[in-house]
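User: My collaborator sent over this chain with a note saying "see what the structure looks like." That's all I know about it. Can you take a look?
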Amino acid sequence: LHEYQVIGRRLPSEQEPTPKLFRMRIFAPNVVVAKSRYWYFLSKLHKAKRASGEIVSVNEIFESKPLTVKNYGIWLRYDSRSGTHNMYKEYRETSRAAAVEACYQDMAARHRARFSSIQIIRVATVKASEVRRPYIQQLIQPNLKFPLPHRSNRPAKVHRSLIVAQRPSTFY
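Assistant: Without extra context I'll predict from the sequence alone. Here is the result:
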């Protein structure tokens, strides 16, 4: 999934020679889907459609620090089998696009929501002190350690054999 900045407007006319530009940040797998989603959202927000409009520019937005892990809060709206719901979810990822991709996977798993029925309203980085969800709070602790149970050490190629007299000791 990539993040695109799509800028578009209505076609210039005699009544409006310089139409207002509308900018959106769209999460989509490619440029074609990004343009399609742009017109989908713009037609819901303003009186504009693809036939009477044009796309001025499409740019991919890249993460400024893709190697640092950040907390992301995502506000979304989705259509379930019973109705439309608003939701706030938190993810711990390295980029905005990765957080949104994790959100789509999570919504598909937990709520059986498809890509077309989910609308991302806002994505923001959340400070560690402002994280609300306990499943993200448990990962923020400064002295976090993960146990390594039942490790098996592989002997050197010289000492390795197919049949050994005792089972491997994997407990430390």
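A starting point for your reply to your collaborator: The chain has three helices and six strands.
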